Amino acid sequence: MSRTQLLEIEPIRNLKFRHLWALGVGAVIGDGIFLLIGEGIAVAGPSAIIAYIIAGLFQFFLMMALAELAIGMPSAGGMAVWVERFMGKWWGFLSGFAFAAGWVIGGGGISMALGTITSWYFPQLTSGIWTTLFAIIFVTAFALLNILGTAIAARTQLYLVLILTVGMSLFAIIGVKDVHPANFSEWFPHGASGFFSAIPMGTYAYLGAISIVTAGAETVNRKDLPKALIWSSVTFILIYSAAQVVLQGIIPWNEVTMDSSPFTEAANVVFGYAGAFIINFVAWIAAATCILMGTFYTASRIFYAQARRGYLPKFFGYLHPKTRTPVYGIIFIWACSVIFIIIGAFSPNLIYVEFSLQLTLAWVVSWTLAVIAAMLYRKHAKEEVMALPWKQWFYPLFPILGLIGMVIIFYGTFLNTPMTLIRGLVWMVALFIFYKLYSEKRVVEEKIKKAN
Question: Which segments constitute the Amino acid permease/ SLC12A domain (predicted)?
Answer without folding.
Answer: 19-438
